[in-house]
Every structure is written in C-alpha cells, then in structure tokens.
Specification:
The chain is of the alpha/beta class and 192 residues long. The protein has one domain: Uracil-DNA Glycosylase, subunit E (3-Layer(aba) Sandwich), CATH 3.40.470. It is built from six helices and five strands, in the order E-H-H-E-H-E-H-E-H-E-H. It has a five-stranded mixed β-sheet. The longest helix is centred in the middle third of the chain and has 18 residues. It starts with 18 loop residues before the first strand and ends in a 10-residue tail after the last helix. The relative contact order is 0.20.
C-alpha cells in the first residue's frame, strides 16, 4: 500500500491566468485520489459552479480542465498531511518562498487563497486582521505580487465550521463578479 504522504498533487498553471487558486496543502483524501479537493465534503467544486465561475460542476478528476477556463490551481505547501495542523513552520516558510517565485514567473491576474491560513502564510500577515474578499492595494501592490490582485475565500474544507456553506459559496460569486468587472471572466454573461 502506498503512503498518501508520498503522493503530491500537480500544480496546473500557465502565464497570465485569470485566477490561480491556492489552498493550504493536500489532505489525505485528495493525495490518495491524486486530485485537488477530492473529499466529497469539500465545497470547492460546488463553489466554482454555484458562484458562476464554471458552466457546470466539475469533478475532482477534471482538475486539469480548470486551465480551459483560464484558472490554475496549486497549494502553498505541497506536502500532504491528514490535517493542515500537521504542517510545520518550515513547511510554510519553504512553501511561501516557492509560491512567491511561481507568482513572479507566471503572473496570474488574481490569486484566490482558499482559506485565511493560506493567505496569512503566503503574505506573512500572521497577526493582522484579515477580511475576506478582495484585499487592499497595500497587499497586492508589493514586489512579491507584481500586478496580481489578492482575493481570500473562506476555506472550503468540510471541517470549516467558522462559516456556513452559503457564506463560503457566496465568496465564489463575489470573485465571479470581480472577474466580470475586469473583463477577465471566461464565461459569457448569463441571460436574465
């Protein structure tokens, strides 16, 4: 039997994506399945669809098709764990350094952090009060994030009891609205 901690998930990215989604790290179920957000309790795929970012609810096995919609996906820390609480400070430090290098190379228009924890560790804002949604220019205007807007959604993990399902899915809708305002949305405007 293969140990799930040895199965790392691929990053799907290319230059100038509309959105790069960034989670904390792969969990046991996702690492075992080999796909991002494979746990049925996770709201990520549902949020993309119900938030208007994809025309249908994609399956975890279709992770690579995110690129068809001008989206990418990665994790701040590549190492799979049973829980993000199993991550060490050096995991976050290494992950943040590699993530910033990736952003500077690929320059996505929007970086959407799936969870406040991923955002805190990527930006080094571990003690500051964090609001959800689009972040202020004082964050995304730095050299680390050249030209990228930063957006934070509540963690889509089934273990997230801090926000309701509706609150978490609503943030995907806000991201969709922002993309439309910027002219970066990959889908046609819905008919009324």
């Amino acid at each position: 039997m293969v140990d799930f901690t040895e199965k790392w998930l691929p990053t799907y990215i290319r230059r100038d994506l509309a959105v790069l989604f960034c989670g904390i790290n792969p969990g046991r179920i996702s690492a075992t399945a080999g796909y991002h957000y494979a746990n049925p309790a996770n709201l990520f795929w549902r949020g993309l669809f119900e938030g208007g970012l994809t025309p249908r609810r994609l399956l975890p096995e279709e992770t690579s098709s995110l690129l068809d919609y001008d989206y990418g996906i990665t994790d701040l820390v590549s190492r799979p764990t049973r829980s993000s609480t199993d991550l060490r400070d050096d995991d976050y430090a290494t992950g943040a350094q590699q993530f910033i290098q990736m952003i500077q190379t690929y320059r996505p228009r929007v970086i959407c952090f799936n969870g406040i924890t991923a955002f805190r560790h990527a930006t080094g804002q571990k003690k500051a009060a964090i609001t959800l949604g689009l972040q202020s220019e004082r964050v995304f205007g730095t050299d680390d994030w050249p030209g990228s807007y930063l957006f934070v959604i509540p963690s889509t993990s089934g273990a997230n009891a801090s926000f309701t399902r509706e609150e978490r899915i609503a943030k995907f809708g806000e991201l969709s609205t922002f993309l439309r305002q910027k002219g970066w949305h990959p889908l046609p405007e819905p008919e009324l």
